[in-house]
């Protein structure tokens, strides 16, 4: 039965999978919607740094007129969500393994609703900063729950599509927060920045109203030895699939679990650092570290555009264009990957980002740069093209490959550690951004891209030697490839019979 299920999964086309697993797709999309909240909240404060009302109420007067949020407070506010995420991501796997993906998500959503209230009504920047640290703990959990659920309820042909949707939700959150903040830049009262925070109440209400009917992950149920519940979950996730077919799928899942047990794969965090799991954790973590330092400019985009010479309105408009092209790139990603594969798309995407980062930085040394607005517009345009390439390749592939790479037994914990490492690296970026961009600090402007360009070049070298091709492989096949220590560049063409 397991062999039949493995062969059937390989032969299943994307269109057939969409028809048979359309309910799984819808439930996965619902759970992944929590990433919209995560992206919105993490990015919104960075956009508010450029909003006049936020600058006035949370900032201090600066020489030459106007207000700026002091660098140390920008760092403290921005780091709040990231510091919390480091702990939250690490902790998320514990309730996920004990209570399941569904109940853990429900608890996180309730916590989100309470913490948004604290953000909206924060009377001072101190209280606002504290709320961000607390909320960050919850955001770290979403980073683990959404891709884990998406990868566990969908078949092989849809893994890339549904995990791409996770990254699409991130782009949607970025686009929404920029648009909402832009809509209120002409208001001078506190609601100009309170309303953007209040918008976050929508998502917990929407997701919780439907989550009660969502099926639990069949992989989690299998590991709890609840085989009948796992079978019923598969029945609820599929349409037009016979009970015998779902029984074969469950047999393949059980065989994969048994294989991992035979390989003495434990289920603790320490096991993520042993044997082939160490290599898997390296791949998952590096994908997100390189994401953070590849120049993805959305987090500080509006503020950066202001510092290179654009006025506030133009800076926000360019940021909206940036996020919109990011949305388009992520939508197009599933159409690209079947033709070029994960590894090739990632390498070419990062290569393009490296070139754009260096060009943007070098333009800062052009003659009459400070008095020629055309240079600022050129840099902004190049960053927008970079965002398109980033969203087409690096952003979705980080989620896709990181959910395919871990062993099924350690997926939640591997993704939890990955999110923790991702948060720690983003913490460094969050500290560097305001310090390098703020006029009262280094005032580096677009020269900041020299740093990102250099780090991204090192990431490109790493990817060439360490990033394998994971497309069109079942989880059992990937387990075998990693356990056999197959060289990185041989993953794609390695052939072996499906084990019985």
From TrEMBL:
Annotated Major facilitator superfamily (MFS) profile domain residues: 27-471
Chief localization: membrane
Coiled-coil ranges from the UniProt annotation: none
Signal peptide: none
Highest taxon above the source species: Eukaryota
Keywords: Membrane, Transmembrane, Transmembrane helix, Transport
One Pfam assignment: Sugar_tr
GO CC field: membrane
Membrane-crossing residue ranges in chain numbering: 105-124, 130-150, 162-181, 201-222, 283-305, 320-338, 345-365, 377-402, 414-436, 448-465
UniProt-annotated location(s): Membrane
Bilayer topology: Multi-pass membrane protein
Single GO molecular function: carbohydrate:proton symporter activity
Membership in a protein family: Belongs to the major facilitator superfamily. Sugar transporter (TC 2.A.1.1) family.
Name used for this protein in its record: Major facilitator superfamily (MFS) profile domain-containing protein
